[in-house]
């Protein structure tokens, strides 16, 4: 039986991004050995989208109130990399990780499956 999913985020500064996830996003985690941190994620869901190009994978954080979440993160000094935009499927923004990469975050307007 499948017991979970493991998401990998590649980073040019993994140590700084791990600290961000631990200290700013406050995700609990375990040390898998030698300081290699693996974090517990909130409930998740997966969608499969068609593509004409090369297949790729994306990782988005989800929240119930995007404006409140962004305000809380901004108060912690997090840079909002992309301001809120209205999509037909939700309200989308992005956070700036310490490595410089963007981490999308959105408030879904579609039915969610993560709590089924």
TrEMBL record:
<feature type="domain" description="VOC">
    <location>
        <begin position="3"/>
        <end position="108"/>
    </location>
</feature>
<dbReference type="InterPro" id="IPR037523">
    <property type="entry name" value="VOC_core"/>
</dbReference>
<protein>
    <submittedName>
        <fullName>VOC family protein</fullName>
    </submittedName>
</protein>
<dbReference type="InterPro" id="IPR029068">
    <property type="entry name" value="Glyas_Bleomycin-R_OHBP_Dase"/>
</dbReference>
């Amino acid at each position: 039986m499948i017991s979970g999913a493991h998401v990998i985020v590649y980073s040019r500064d993994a140590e700084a991004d791990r600290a961000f996830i631990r200290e700013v996003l406050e995700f609990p985690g375990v040390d898998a050995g030698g300081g290699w941190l693996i974090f517990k994620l909130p409930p998740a869901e997966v969608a499969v989208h068609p593509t004409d190009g090369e297949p790729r994978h994306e990782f988005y954080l989800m929240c119930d109130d995007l404006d409140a979440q962004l305000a809380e993160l901004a108060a912690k000094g997090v840079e909002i990399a992309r301001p809120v935009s209205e999509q037909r499927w939700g309200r989308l923004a992005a956070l700036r990780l310490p490595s410089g990469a963007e981490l999308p975050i959105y408030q879904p307007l579609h039915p969610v499956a993560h709590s089924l």
